[in-house]
Amino acid sequence: MTKSKVNMSSDLKKECSKVIHTTATAAAAAGAIPIPMSDTIPITVAQIMMVIQLGKVFDVEISQSVAKSILGVNLARETGRKIVTSALKMFPGVGSAIGGAISASTAAALTETMGWIVADDFFRMSKGDKPQDLLNASKELKAAFEEVKQ
Fold first, then answer.
1. In this predicted structure, what is the pLDDT of residue 137?
2. Which residues of 82-109 are buried (b: 16+ CB within 10 A; e: fewer)?
3. Do the Cβ atoms of 112 and 24 come closer than 8 Å?
4. 40, 79, 80 from 32: Cα distances, Å
């Protein structure tokens, strides 16, 4: 999901896009680190900051604890990715390269998808509507994860 699903103005989309793409790039860079489990903290921090920055775009005050809760929908998927890529990164050379590539592309895709889910929800909230339910959000994340696996 690289675009908003709501009827956001082009200026808002550009502003969201800048925040989301910058964070996805940072997540990919962290994911490419060839040391097992070394990307967890930088990716999580980047995603939390992304949610806070997106909140500012829509004048929504977000604390770190709320941002962490919003990102909680991704926890199970991220855990599975970590197990596989960390195991691959344990093998010097080819395993590290493959694990880093998988981790980087997955981190970027999930961060991008999460960013647009959050941006869409903040837009809906700014218009007085309800945010998307977690079940639909988790389906979008799963679809993004499946896309990266192929």
1. 59
2. beebbebbeeeeeebeebbebbbbbbbb
3. yes
4. 11, 16, 17
